[in-house]
Amino acid sequence: MTSAVDTQADNGAVQAQYDVDVAIIGAGPAGLTAGYLLSRQGYKVAIIEKDQTYVGGISRTVEHEGYRFDIGGHRFFSKSQAVVDLWNEILPDDFIQRPRMSRIYYEGKFYSYPLRAFEALGNLGIMRSTACMASYVWSRFFPIKEVRSFEDWTSNQFGKKLYSIFFKTYTEKVWGMPCDEMSADWAAQRIKGLSLGAAVLDGLKRSLGLNKRPNNGMQTKTLLETFRYPRLGPGMMWDAARDRIVEAGSTVLMGHGLKQLASDGQGGWRMTATRAEGGETVIRAAHAISSAPMRELAARIHPLPQTTLEASRLRYRDFLTVALKIRSEDLFPDNWIYIHDSKVRVGRIQNFRSWSPEMVPDDGVACVGLEYFCFEGDDLWASTDDALIELATREMAILGLVRPDQVIGGAVVRQEKAYPVYDDEYAANVAAMRDELEAAYPTLHMVGRNGMHRYNNQDHAMMTAMLSVENIIAGERVYDIWCVNEDAEYHEAGDEGETKTLPNRPGHRDISADQQAALDSVRAVPARVARANRIAA
Ligand SMILES: Cc1cc2nc3c(=O)[nH]c(=O)nc-3n(C[C@H](O)[C@H](O)[C@H](O)COP(=O)(O)OP(=O)(O)OC[C@H]3O[C@@H](n4cnc5c(N)ncnc54)[C@H](O)[C@@H]3O)c2cc1C
């Protein structure tokens, strides 16, 4: 049951206290999925969300004077029917099916993605095309023998010239490290099965109209021709989930940041949250679910876990979007454009009117989101909003996509911890914290993207929450949400010869193929080439 008591604190600030079944940290897809399912089963939950305005976390939709934009465009796609069913249940009437179009921009020209051979040759011009072919032939005859890095692998596969045009700049913008320091494994995994010969053949067929498919064999991976999208953006899904939770009698507390999660000594929890407007709220619960970054959680658990130091070493890549409001009836048709040009710092440009016409207030305007990948505190992150809007306006002009006089306003959204970083140590640090907390606290459940330090999509975050809810209902950890799809690096940290795919632990229920489909959607992230190899290179 929920019971809220407002009391007067010594310093005059009002303090509220809730007694619930489950206390949840974070109103992103993971936290709201857990809250929604628990409320539906009659459990009372209280969710704390540090953002004062928006639920949805990284999947929120920000609104600014009638313009709506995502933190990156969010497609709703899952191979898990259970996740799709849940989306349809929460938002039955508001999904639209949108055509997908995205191109690569390089030195003033657009390249279809996937590439079309004649178009690419025409865009590159005869000199550069010849140079690309020559460098490809060179790489066939004289490949780099000891392949260590992304650069080595991709240059061998496509030739140095094509690597520098279609891979180097964008990859470095996104990950913030040079391609010659990224591991070759990631390239092999990411660009698996794509060879220049096959791409040229496919592109020739495409140019001649003989191949209408989005791409040979890659449809399921990256190239869905259409996608589903809530008509007012992904935030619409998460607003609806919040509303249903509240209708069921539970609580979503906005502007509440986790201050402390203390064991109550009886297997339950006493969660303290700091209110943005001052004062504190206390929530007492039998279970706690956390979608907060593992690093933050570790520092706020009382008593402090022994692995707080390991958790403090987890790192993140951050992200900011500069949304520009533009007077234009006919902006480019793409949903997004990859910017491979090194003259500008923007990595990708979203065109939100192409995601849904309802993302803009009328037909005469458009809203683009210029995405800058950065680290919290670097020069981009620390720039003022005005300076970033000016930079974005200037870069749109340099790219020839929008004239400065078409820009009628702008807004900046900074997203800290957008990408969990997979460095040499991360798997061991995550495993250490997880092992300690799971052994000590059967009623603490870590879920979601930063909550499990996994680079995943919404469906994965949701499935980890869905299975944790099953665990809470069962009164024991019947599902092991960590054991599925362990990545190779974690296993490499263990004993040689250990099995690569961990079976569920004894005593745990088997994960169904459908559940596994969502848990398997974790995306690959480049690791740094080991230091010894970098020095040797
Ligand atoms: C650029 C980009 C594009 C993406 N595109 C897609 C896509 O097309 N499709 C897709 O399915 N997924 C996409 N994703 C991934 C998707 O955004 C995430 O998988 C999803 O949002 C993770 O949900 P979550 O609830 O685990 O975490 P989050 O979304 O991070 O939510 C966590 C919530 O917890 C709150 N919180 C954190 N710490 C505290 C604290 N101490 N106290 C209180 N509250 C706290 C945060 O404010 C946040 O609201 C994309 C991500 C990025 C960065």
Protein architecture, described:
This protein is an alpha/beta fold and 537 residues long. It has three domains: 1-94 and 226-314 and 422-537, FAD/NAD(P)-binding domain; 107-207, no CATH class; 316-420, Protoporphyrinogen oxidase, mitochondrial, domain 2 (Polyamine Oxidase, Chain A, domain 2), CATH 3.90.660.20. It has helices spanning 29-40, 81-90, 117-141, 150-158, 160-175, 184-190, 196-207, 234-247, 294-300, 308-312, 352-355, 379-382, 385-398, 426-440, 458-474, 488-492, 513-519, 531-536; strands at 3-8, 14-25, 45-49, 61-64, 67-70, 95-99, 102-106, 109-112, 226-230, 251-254, 256-263, 269-275, 280-290, 301-302, 316-327, 336-339, 348-351, 365-374, 407-420, 444-446. Strands 1, 2, 3, 10, 11, 12, 13, 14 and 20 form a nine-stranded mixed β-sheet that branches. A hairpin with a 4-residue loop joins β12 and β13 (280-290). α4 (150-158) packs across α6. The model is unreliable at 214-223 and 485-503 (pLDDT under 50). Flavin-adenine dinucleotide (FAD) is lined by residues 25-31, 48-51, 57-59, 71-75, 257-258, 291-292, 296, 319, 418, 448-451, 456-459, 461.
Question: Quick summary of this structure?
Answer:
By secondary structure, the protein is of the alpha/beta class. 35% of the residues lie in helices and 24% in strands.
How many structural domains in the coordinates? 3
Q: Return the CATH topology of the largest domain.
A: FAD/NAD(P)-binding domain
Q: Into which percentage range does the β-strand content fall?
A: 15-25%
Q: How many whole angstroms does the radius of gyration measure?
A: 24 Å
CATH level-four homologous superfamily name of the largest domain: FAD/NAD(P)-binding domain
Low-confidence stretches: 214-223, 485-503
Ligands present: flavin-adenine dinucleotide
CATH architecture of the largest domain: 3-Layer(bba) Sandwich
CATH class term of the largest domain: Alpha Beta
Q: What does the largest sheet look like?
A: 9 strands, mixed
Binned, the helix content reads 25-40%
How confident is the prediction overall: mean pLDDT? 87
